């Protein structure tokens, strides 16, 4: 605990990650650290030498923590990273701001381009790292620069041109922690923006699972293919493993029916991958991040 002696943040030992993940499954984190601000994070990273034992997480919507738990320290950014500041030609947004909150805030300020984020669970930091997107938009289109901290606690600002954004990937080094971003500030019609948000939210409710224990999309789309269609065409729709099943609304979503563990969910995902590859020759890659001991 000496690494946290100067910290103003929260430190919890043997913390059950099922309390944070959207699937409500997973073992314990050896240490959960919620730094209050940049200085907190800096001091910890500067002093903690076993860098491989550090994991940073976001809103836990696209995260599967294995049942054996996680060794080392899980870092979840706290309230000091939850801010939105409006500058003359850009917006500065903290990494722990929820996507839906950012979208709604931009709508109130008549700033367009953020509407699609109202339907993506999780936080801006995770969305940038994964280059999240839907409805023909990706977060890369909103970025001016990204502010990161490396595992030694040093700050660096990455201009958009330095970031190798691709489909569901930013290419940002895994040893960098995204702590904030500078975003584009394009004015639009408040009425049109709110209308688009409503349209997207209603469409999501009709086509994707809600009010159940689920995560985000399970697999990324192969090039020129849709993961959900490959799953459906391969006859996987009714697959069940233990307490885990495929969503009735959208077959690229896994659901904890109430008594699943992480092993059930991961085994179901791998079972789907195997059958899709056998039937179509297409390899599905996990979009959900999986961490911890099996």
Question: Which SSEs are present, and which pair or pack?
Answer:
Blueprint: E1 10-16, E2 28-34, H1 38-47, E3 54-57, E4 63-65, E5 70-76, E6 84-86, E7 90-94, H2 99-108, H3 124-130, E8 133-134, E9 137-138, E10 143-150, E11 155-159, E12 176-184, H4 190-207, E13 213-214, H5 227-233, E14 240-241, E15 244-246, E16 254-256, H6 262-280, E17 289-291
Helix pairs in contact: 2-4
Characterize the structure shown.
- With 294 residues, this protein is of the alpha+beta class.
- It folds into 3 domains: 2-79, Uridine Diphospho-n-acetylenolpyruvylglucosamine Reductase, domain 2; 82-206, 2-Layer Sandwich (Uridine Diphospho-n-acetylenolpyruvylglucosamine Reductase, domain 3); 209-291, Uridine Diphospho-n-acetylenolpyruvylglucosamine Reductase, domain 1, CATH 3.90.78.10.
- It contains 6 helices and 17 strands.
- The chain has helices at 38-47, 99-108, 124-130, 190-207, 227-233, 262-280; strands at residues 10-16, 28-34, 54-57, 63-65, 70-76, 84-86, 90-94, 133-134, 137-138, 143-150, 155-159, 176-184, 213-214, 240-241, 244-246, 254-256, 289-291.
- The strands form 5 sheets. It has a 5-stranded antiparallel sheet with strand order 6-7-12-10-11. A 4-stranded mixed sheet has the order 1-2-5-3, with no helix packed on it.
- Strand 10 and strand 11 form a beta hairpin.
- Helix 2 (99-108) packs antiparallel against helix 4.
- The mean pLDDT is 95.
